[in-house]
Amino acid sequence: MLKESWTLVEEHQEKVAGYFYARIFLSHPDLRELFPVHMDVQRSRLLNAIVTAVQTLDDPEKFDEYLKALGRDHKKFHVEPEHYEVVGGALIEAMRAHAGEQWGVEYDQAWADAYAVIAARMLAGADADDNPPYWYAEVVAHERRAQDIAVFTVQPMQPLEFRAGQYLSLECPKYQPRLWRTYSVANAPRKDNTLEFHVRSVGAGWVSSALVRRLQIGDMIKLAAPMGTMNLDRRSTRDVVFIAGGTGLAPIKSLLEELTRYNRTRWVHVFIGARDREDLYDLADLNRLAARYPWLSVVEACSEDPTFPGEQGNISEVVAKYGPWNNHDFFVSGSGAMVKSTLKTLAELQVPSIRIKYDSFTDLP
Ligand SMILES: Cc1cc2nc3c(=O)[nH]c(=O)nc-3n(C[C@H](O)[C@H](O)[C@H](O)COP(=O)(O)OP(=O)(O)OC[C@H]3O[C@@H](n4cnc5c(N)ncnc54)[C@H](O)[C@@H]3O)c2cc1C
Ligand code: HEM
After folding, report:
1. Which listed residue, 75, 112, 179, 241, has the most CB atoms within 10 A of its CB?
2. Ligand 1 within 6 A of 176 CB?
3. How many other C-beta atoms are found inside a 10 Å radius of the C-beta of residue 77?
4. pTM of this prediction exceeds 0.85
5. Where is the Globin domain (predicted)?
6. Are the C-beta atoms of 231 and 163 separated by less than 8 Å?
């Protein structure tokens, strides 16, 4: 019934979104402050997110963990329990207003029931979480490593626990208030609590360009609770292959740093790909690590730099030239396109998918 009723309004999605937000902000003007300054409907995440959640979560039990995490994550947006009712009501009214005569009370009920189940799980997740909604952190170092790449370090004001390989979402209130984006931590947990990030500014990207071009030492940013499961299994005895594209190196560096603390027995191969040599922004450090740890090898490749002296081509093609890779743990990180082509190559090389962990910075194409 949820899917059937959505088809009545699907064509008018933009209008539904406009009405939905207008409804919320007119009845509760204070809620406007929770949302980004620029909110063209195309980019409005919340409505699309709720509709997708309500329609795909046929079995809320199965998505329990996801919904709890989403509820925890909403603390950073300053969402309070009473807001759920306002948003749920606006959603149903917006659909009803645009669906025409075919809309029936049974649809109202179906959406209200599904929304209530999801909201309850999100609220339970938020309630059970002891973490603060976010941490403030001060920028203590910022280095431009290439035209559009920066490496920077922040010092959280309170300790922020995470595991190597995780990412967290970040807001830069001074330059892009209320826009949160996820970035991978590029180091393993340290005694001084500092966190390093590698960011590439993408095209017209709001947050990434502020982080690369505007962020300065002394600025404060906000960080939300860490997420992600691309972690090392310390019990595994298999050798390790890390495959990174561009700033996809960040979580790989974190895992590598963790390995430098205990590894003696596992061979570790890092494959790092970029368009041109300028984008291989961290090669000096990787080579320093390779010189220091005999178990580590680094292969670098450029896909659009014919005079580059290392490997040529996409990183997935380069990985296929090496090997054999039949008894290794794989970690893959980079853009959706890079991750997708690497997973395809690994499947062709008959690497069991259970041995592959990956983080994709954009949706898989
Ligand atoms: C789990 C995870 C970890 C991530 N870790 C990192 C990291 O360590 N370092 C890092 O630099 N980024 C990382 N990202 C990407 C990051 O979250 C943002 O998506 C990226 O910085 C763009 O945000 P923006 O606000 O600048 O762009 P937006 O304003 O959101 O987007 C602007 C335009 O750029 C397009 N776009 C968005 N992202 C990309 C992209 N990556 N490549 C090409 N086009 C894009 C959008 O479709 C849009 O058209 C990670 C993403 C995920 C999901
Ligand atoms: C069923 C209930 C809800 C679901 C499934 C849901 C889901 C989501 C998802 C998946 C996102 C995108 C997160 C991201 O990109 O990091 C999001 C963003 C957001 N949500 Fe919710 N949400 C719900 C309820 C609410 C409520 C009640 C509020 C309160 C006003 C709220 C406020 C926000 C805000 C402010 C954002 C960021 C918007 C932006 O960046 O444009 N959400 N939501």
Report:
1. 241
2. no
3. 17
4. yes
5. 1-127
6. yes
Quick one: which of 197, 297, 191 has its CA closest to 247?
197
Ligand 2 center to residue 135 CA distance, Å?
A: 19
Quick check: 116 pLDDT over 80?
A: yes
- Indicate the top mutation candidate among 41, 46, 68, 170 to test ligand 2's pocket, ranked by most ligand atoms within 8 A of CB: 46
Closest ligand by atom to 211 CA: 1
Give the chain's end-to-end CA distance (angstroms, integer). Answer: 29
Closest C-alpha to ligand 2, atom 28: 79
Ligand nearest to the CA of 212: 1
Give me the mean pLDDT over the 27-56 stretch.
Answer: 82
> How many whole angstroms separate alpha carbon 255 and alpha carbon 242?
9
Query: 257 and 187 in contact (C-beta within 8 Å)?
Result: yes
pLDDT digits (tens, 9 = 90+) for 256-267: 999 999 999 999
**Proximal ligand: closest to the CA of 21:** 2
Q: Are 357 and 230 in contact (CB under 8 A)?
A: yes
Query: What residues are paired with 331 via a beta bridge?
Result: 242, 357
Distance (angstroms) between ligand 2 centre and the Cα of 35 equals: 9
Q: For 316-324, which contacts have Cβ atoms below 8 Å and span 24 or more sequence positions? A: 316/243, 316/341, 316/342, 316/344, 316/345, 317/345, 318/271, 318/273, 319/241, 319/243, 319/271, 319/345, 319/346, 320/345, 320/348, 320/349, 322/269, 322/271, 323/349
